[in-house]
Structure prediction request, 257 residues.
Amino acid sequence: MKPLRIIHLFPELLNLYADQGNIAVLRDRALRRGWPVDVRQVRLGETLDLAGVDIILLGGGSDREQEVVARALPMYRPDLAHAADAGLPILAVCGGYQLLGEYYELASGERITGLRLVDVATRAGGTRLIGNVAVERLTPSGQGTGETVVGFENHVGRTHHEYPAFGRVLRGHGNNGEDGLEGLCHKGIVATYIHGPLLPKNPHVADQLLRTALRRRGLDRPLAPLDDTFEWAAHKSVLQMLGLSDGGSVRERLVRS
Ligand code: GLN
Prediction:
């Protein structure tokens, strides 16, 4: 089987709160299932070759780092827009999420122009939305799935869009601290404010990305189950810290499916 090819875009600038840990998890979960992995880092200014790429990660960053990245985005936009349109799995976290959109307007009124892969606008608010977060995953039509996702958020930007959300906020702030929604799902894009990093405590989200990658290769088959005892224990401890139930039902549902 051809290696799972993962690209970390601009790791020297977009890697807040160990977002690259998401790649470590994807890599580990693929390797444990006997799927070889090829991880490539593409630094700002370097050529991006998307041939054979299965998953892209865009991590978070400070406003300053986002400004630096944004200046170089026009050279990457055509290829990324084409790939996003074709359903390539793209995991975008916080600053990376904002950069997928139209713009991020800073408190000064200055606008950082994004990749415009999705019709999303972000504006800085007067306070920082920070802390541990738990959401319930939603279906594309906005129904609750009973699956929880946990992590940490820290952002000034408030994001608004009309796409299906990644989740419904149970604890924390989410997209804008107002509408109770978190993140965005569109085609292969999974965009979220959740750091932590996201995937170590949320193995079901990691497997969703892997399944999408497999399906794009024409391999529509279930992933072999892994022993996720530690992952779910970490997940559960965040739920408990936030005063939520222990997540057991989520795990059982996943094991059954
Ligand atoms: N700089 C952005 C904000 O504050 C994103 C921060 C992040 O990636 N955590 O909204």
